[in-house]
Amino acid sequence: MKIKNIVSLSLICFAFGNISAQNPWPQTTETAKPWTRWWWMGNAADEKGLDKQLTTLNKAGFGGVEIVPIYGAKGFEKQYLTYLSPEWMKMLQFTTSKAKSLSMGVDMSVGTGWPIGGPQVDEQDAATKMIVQTYTISSGEKFSDKIVLKDEKQKNLKTVKLNIVTAYNEKNEAVVLTDKINADGTLNWKPGSGKWTVYAVFVGKTLQKVKRAAPGGEGYTLDHFSPEATKDYLKTFDKAFGNSNYGIRSFFNDSYEVYNADWTPDFLNEFKKRRGYDLSPFIKYLVSNEENETAGRVKSDYRETLNELILTNFTKDFTNWAHSKNSKNTNQAHGSPGNLLDLYAAVDIPESETFGSSIFEIPGLKRDTADIQKSDMPDFNMLKFASSAANVTGKKLTSNETFTWLTEHFKTSWSQAKPEVEQVFLSGINHVFYHGTTYTPADVKFPGWLFYASVNFVPENSLWPNIKGLNSYIERTQSVLQSGKSDNELLMYWPIYDQWASPKGKDVTFKVHNVEKWLVPTPMYENMNKLSKMGYSLDMISDKMIGESKSENQKIQVSKEGSAYQVLIIPELTYLPESTLKSIIDLAQNGASVIFQNEPIDIPGNFEVDKRRMLLKSLWNQIPFQNQAGNMKFASIGKGKIVLSSDVVKALEYLKIEREKLTDTGLKFVRRQFDGGKYYYIVNHTSKEINQNIPLNFVGKQVTLMNPENGNYGLAETQNNSVKVQLKSGQSLIIKNTEDIYTSIPNWYYAEKTDAPILLNQPWQLTFKEGGPELPRTKNLKKLEPWTNFTEDASTQSFSGTGVYTTTLKLKKKNADDYLLKFDKLYESAKVIVNGQDAGIVWSLPYEINIGKYLKKEKNTIQIEVCNLMANRIRDMDQKKIQWRNYHEINFVNINYKPFDASNWKVQPSGLDGEIQLIPIHYSK
């Protein structure tokens, strides 16, 4: 349907009263704007500094802050406040009151630094580990040794105790000797015959302390598996907060980075209660390096128990506690030994994180290998664990710690941030937190206080004048991605028991930083990549979620608030609990479509193995499979269908599940549904321009294109369930499809042709308006060039700030519909002013901006205010040995965690270079 037909249809519908005038952009709130993690160094916060920084953040387009106290700056010890003290709480109250007056939100970490812990964590509640000692004893020999702890670091701890003693002979016959040990460690047992190995397991402590702790937050890390430890820990916050939440929207817990914590004092009892048998006779299989079936089964049960303990005793208790304060909670589940999907789902706002820099094909996008993390690159599918949990359970927000170590300090441009955050959005996340902003007292000089692992989203950043470009883009995008529900059609089961059943190692943690070990090699990951590239949209689902799912109208739904899905996919696996298979068959009986990539081979765990294995086989044999063409088996079961095929794509085609063919162009998308329509958020991360009709599975009666970069919108051209799209590399677009017809929406401007470009190769004047350490002198340029080219002027080599390029342009005729100002090289962002009018910000690739409405015939004045990186000024400070980094603890490191020193850096090009073209554009009528 052509656009003129849409307009005529509008007139027809208007006569029947079904038309309303409406701006297509959703109304935004503070959650649609980006938030930032706000480090309080040493808690040295005062009302003047808090007021100044909150006001500055608000003006720059931030919607909220997340307070995380950390180590302090040297020389400011007298200003330090003790965490959660009355003085600290007073600053918190001032912060939330000031933020409220600015329509901003405030979150805070339940601890300082990370992972959570502190002075309230006594020895009993501290992170716990197994300490294993082995002994040998033979019949007829006197066992003269004593079974006492030999670890010198643990000997003085009051809570360390002997937990399990089990002996094994050469036939692996076990005798539990725990009650045969006297108080002094002597063994009250003699073997009847043979040689025996005795395994003694002590309950010890990891002795890990809180990392990067703030004053008043130092202490042991928490035992996440103990309900008493969680309860005791939160009592400190109860005391500080009383009956108020002090205006905190959400209490935040950072990623699980508790090292070597693999036990809890009551683990044995919990294991027996949850797994149905005593672990003591099998302890050898858990703690030794033997790789056999029994070891894999025991370790699977052990890992599943750890999962249930952290879910029940920490995560759910944390959520309930936050709700008791009339607040929400936010949790980064990754890094833990639990099922990430269930852990993310157990909180109000699941939060993932990105770490490092991604590779994009966008021409001109800077990615210097010397300035990036060598080992870390954000993984798209890793991000989907958090968004999947939110989507299937109906949580409106999924957050993300964004831009951690994106590049080396002081070298990150806003153009580099854009595709990274787009990748986050495409994964289903819709509430980003920058990493981040450091609180700086109002009177501290440049560069202010800085955190060692962040992109510097601070007012002292020389790029700050143009941050509104990035922030506004994110605000518009998130306003759409926070509307309605996710509209993914597939559910992918995570076969976590295949991970848990490995006989190698002991505890298994699912970290952001080791996906190449636990995620990338799996068939699930391969399927997710393949299906995503083909245009299918999916979320992941856990065993627990499958058990809670219902099937209605051929759709699968975990909760009423969550999204509904067309197909459940069980990727290739070895282990599947019989209870999960039963739930899957029940879903199919009630109308669901299910794809198995292979027949489940076995049940996990070591309890009643033969009985449960037979039940699994019996359940599978109840599925009445019939052979189909192409090595595919199909079964109608109840109201639903089950397909068995190693080729998931062919199975989806057999079930007539449509993919979005727009991905054939290389475009990426995420889709949302709302009452009366659907949004498509589409991004061009390819190296080429897309200028064609792209097919959509859903095209409404009215289709509106919306540009999240500048807010423009207009009615699209459509034809045969496709929409005309013009997207250059690096650009994005939102397509709003509605069943209702709205008036007052203009037509979208499609570029039909361009005239020969006008080259702005005339003289320019270069002046400097703000920055330091000093403003370079004004320069008259015969042609455009960066100010760093003027090596004879030392101030240009050290300057970080804003340089203003000004020229005049005579436009002999103005007969085009619009004029595009296109930059060749821009270091790094710019505000464009035409004839005294603000035309907008150029901050992302492609570096161009429409300025036609500001131009006039004959003489035009064009000013381009360019902001460069902080790098050159920091380089100069290090060369002059000016002390600007002076912090307790880690002080300051570079991206490779070596002492930071910019004195040997090359001068970063700054300003404009190459040609600037003014391109006349003619739009289709």
From TrEMBL:
Keywords: Hydrolase, Signal. It comes from the Bacteria. One of its GO terms (molecular function) is hydrolase activity, hydrolyzing O-glycosyl compounds. Residues 1-21 form the signal peptide. Residues 803-888 form the Beta-mannosidase-like galactose-binding domain. The keyword Disulfide bond does not apply. The keyword Signal applies. PANTHER family: DNA-BINDING PROTEIN (PUTATIVE SECRETED PROTEIN)-RELATED, SECRETED PROTEIN. This is Glycoside hydrolase.
